[in-house]
Specification:
Order of helices and strands: HHHEHEEEHHHHHHHHHH
Structural class: alpha+beta
Strand content: 5-15%
Distance between the termini: 7 Å
Strand order of the largest sheet: 1-2-4-3
Number of strands: 4
Helix content: 55-70%
Largest sheet: 4 strands, mixed
Radius of gyration: 19 Å
């Protein structure tokens, strides 16, 4: 079993603490519980999207089962498929977490890469990230009915969601043990698979360095754009993962969990 502490990104932990310290946050959780908000989304998703089960999608179901075993998740989440050109998954829920998979992932990724991509959903469940997705959905759906200003929630939730991607990348690397594969998944959907495979890693890092060094007026625009999205820049993700490996921390984590990974 891969322990949570082995892949949880420090900024992720800090973001969780920030969200928990928001005034009125406990009232928001009570609102979600008392008004059966999760049950509401159960109805929406069950009525609209195909649930992937052992019978409807045995290969995908088996991938999630293996990931659940590796990350110590006892109850496998419900999995739904939606038609989308965005290569992504979406995890939400606290009492009964659910995962939404875009059809593009199934169409574009070969089995090993797909399984590694999907494994991070299970790792995220174990880290408690189902709450992020649920809260973002609640803010968007119920707005003014909430016992706390939605504006007060948006920034810290976006910050937490951005930090969570660095956790996903570490979990994927620990799951598959293949840095090149994990790096390609960070760029999933950027370019055709054959081009991604042929692009030297050094060239991607050179382009990332150019982006990260942007400053001045353009740098201010970059910072504002960062705050307005729930996803971090791919350049930042790849650099963080590379630094985690190059610093020796990844190897230390593997050695500390010898026999588990």
């Amino acid at each position: 079993m891969i322990p949570v502490k082995s892949y949880l990104y420090p900024g992720d932990e800090a973001a969780i603490q920030t969200v928990n310290s928001i005034p009125g946050f406990e009232k928001l959780l009570a609102f979600i519980s008392q008004n059966s908000v999760e049950r509401y989304y159960d109805i929406v998703y069950t009525s609209t999207y195909l649930k992937l089960t052992e019978k409807t999608a045995p290969e995908i179901h088996a991938m999630y089962q293996r990931a659940c075993q590796r990350f110590g998740v006892e109850k496998m989440p419900d999995i739904y498929l939606h038609r989308s050109y965005d290569c992504s998954t979406f995890l939400f829920g606290m009492e009964s977490p659910k995962i939404m998979i875009s059809s593009s992932l199934l169409e574009l990724l070969p089995p090993q890469e797909l399984e590694t991509f999907l494994a991070s959903d299970v790792a995220a469940m174990k880290a408690g990230h189902g709450m992020i997705g649920l809260l973002l959905m609640v803010v968007n759906s119920f707005g003014g009915a909430l016992p706390i200003s939605s504006g007060l929630l948006t920034y810290p939730l976006y910050q937490w969601k951005r930090q969570s991607y660095y956790t996903y990348d570490r979990a994927r690397l620990l799951f598959c043990g293949d840095f090149d594969l994990t790096a390609r998944l960070i760029g999933c959907g950027e370019a055709p698979e054959d081009i991604m495979e042929q692009t030297p890693f050094e060239e991607r890092m050179r382009q990332n360095a150019e982006f990260l060094q942007i400053s001045g007026t353009a740098g201010a625009a970059k910072a504002l754009q960062t705050l307005s999205t729930a996803r971090p820049w791919n350049a930042s993700r790849l650099t963080e993962l590379y630094n985690w490996v190059e610093s020796g921390t990844y190897q230390t984590v593997k050695e500390a969990n010898d026999g588990l990974l």
